[in-house]
Design a protein that fits this description.
Blueprint: H1 17-49, H2 54-79, H3 89-117, H4 122-154, H5 161-189, H6 194-224
Length: about 230
């Protein structure tokens, strides 16, 4: 049997089902927290965009988006060892790297948001955070795609098609939003309506993290009956 992404079919029968389920449950929990933090970023970004303490609340929205990335990427990176036996080593490294970079970008955005909240050149730092978050979302798209291919292999052919399509759509939207956030951040750094563009980037990033986190949670829940 062929493999497109380095999946090791010879090891399928050697998996510890309890270990896989445990790791999957923890990743699903991280995805739920990612979705909630993404929703918070959306709400806070909208409040800031309509003029309610825009700089302060915008900085908090940046923190929320950073937390969402940190939790989402960290959950996969930290627990991937429990699922790693079902993929070849090279595929496992790629997935762990994408998830680790996603978590690192989230941590960086979190730090930038805190500094902005403390009044350290907030417009500049929030614009930089938008670029960092955009890059992190691009990393998240790669990790989600690889995770989905892994789940597709573990399930019977044709099962849970709806959840598969949701994850695929979420990954595609991650790419578009990630690129958009990077562009908006760069334009903000160049002085083109910096606060407005940064807030729009935060709302977009929060929305895509909400969507992708919910999609992954639904995928694992449908797969393992959680």
């Amino acid at each position: 049997m062929g493999t497109n992404l380095g999946i090791n079919y010879d090891r399928r029968d050697q998996m510890d089902e309890g270990t896989v389920r445990s790791g999957a449950a923890e990743i699903a929990g991280g995805s739920t927290a990612e979705a909630l933090a993404g929703a918070a970023a959306v709400v806070l970004g909208i409040l800031a965009l309509i003029g309610l303490l825009p700089v302060t609340i915008g900085a908090i929205a940046t923190i929320a988006a950073g937390v969402a990335l940190l939790i989402g990427g960290g959950a996969i990176a930290a627990r991937f060892a429990r699922l790693r036996s079902i993929e070849r080593r090279s595929a496992g490294r790629q997935m762990a790297t994408s998830s680790g970079l996603e978590a690192f970008m989230g941590l960086a955005a979190l730090a930038l948001g805190i500094l902005a909240l403390l009044g350290v050149d907030p417009l500049t730092l929030m614009a930089v955070a938008a670029i960092v978050l955009g890059a992190g979302v691009l990393m998240a798209a790669g990790a989600a795609t690889r995770m989905e291919n892994m789940l597709q292999w573990m399930q019977p052919v044709g099962s849970e098609r709806r959840q598969h399509e949701m994850v695929a759509t979420a990954s595609a939207s991650d790419v578009l939003v990630g690129l958009g956030a990077v562009v908006l951040g760069i334009l903000a750094l160049l002085g083109l309506s910096p606060l407005t563009l940064t807030l729009v980037a935060m709302i977009a990033v929060g929305a895509t993290l909400l969507f992708s986190g919910s999609a992954l949670t639904g995928r694992f829940s449908a797969m393992f009956g959680g």
